[in-house]
Specification:
This protein is α/β, with parallel strands linked by helices. The chain has a single domain, classed as Secreted effector protein pipB2 fold (2-Layer Sandwich), CATH 3.30.2450. It contains three helices and seven strands; from the N terminus they run ββββαββαβα. A seven-stranded mixed beta sheet has the order 1-7-6-5-4-3-2. Helix 1 packs antiparallel against helix 3.
Length: about 180
């Protein structure tokens, strides 16, 4: 049976990093009252989550034009400490609960069995012993989350003007310059 850690009304749902550009670890933190969970994930997962959340908000607006989206202040605070990784996120599931008017974000731990299927479904939850953090966020939180995600992505290493690969502070071996350092 899956172990679900439910955050029904989180005070904070945010993303942040630890480390220097090029060596950063990305975290999603969910806090509700005194409970705090920090989950690590890949940069591409953060980008995909932000893009999908924006798409969901557009769909919610189309389904119900009377839905009220509040403008929330920007979240520029650092991640809450201590930052102790609960688990590494493998699969993320999204849905909209129209009865609660909340977006449900299920973040499942990376499977310990590398050969196991990485498909997320309710049937799988019943049979697996996966660890899942479920955050029920207000759709108004999406804008705050995606703005913070955009700031994190732009704070990374600058791209090489020739090949587009990330530049390290010491430069990099550029394939467009026949392997010479730029």
């Amino acid at each position: 049976m899956a172990r679900i850690n439910l955050f029904e009304n989180p005070d904070r749902f945010t993303v942040g990093t630890v480390g220097q550009p090029g060596e950063r670890t990305f975290f999603i933190q969910v806090r509700e009252n005194s409970r705090l969970v920090s989950l690590s994930l890949e940069k591409t997962q953060v980008q995909a989550l932000a893009e999908r959340l924006i798409f969901m908000v557009k769909e919610i607006k189309q389904m119900d034009p009377t839905f009220i989206f509040r403008t929330l202040p920007r979240d520029e605070a650092p991640l809450d400490t201590p930052i102790e990784e609960e688990f590494r996120i493998g699969v993320i599931g999204l849905s909209f609960d129209s009865s609660m008017q909340r977006i449900q974000i299920d973040m499942q731990a990376v499977s310990e069995n590398a050969n196991e299927s990485v498909e997320f479904s309710d049937e799988q939850l019943l049979d697996s012993d996966a660890e899942i953090v479920r955050a029920m966020i207000d759709p108004s939180e999406v804008e705050r989350f995606t703005k913070r995600t955009g700031a994190l992505m732009s704070a990374g290493r600058q791209p090489c003007p020739f090949c587009g690969g990330p530049l390290d502070p010491r430069g990099h071996l550029c394939p467009r310059a026949n392997g010479y350092r730029r």
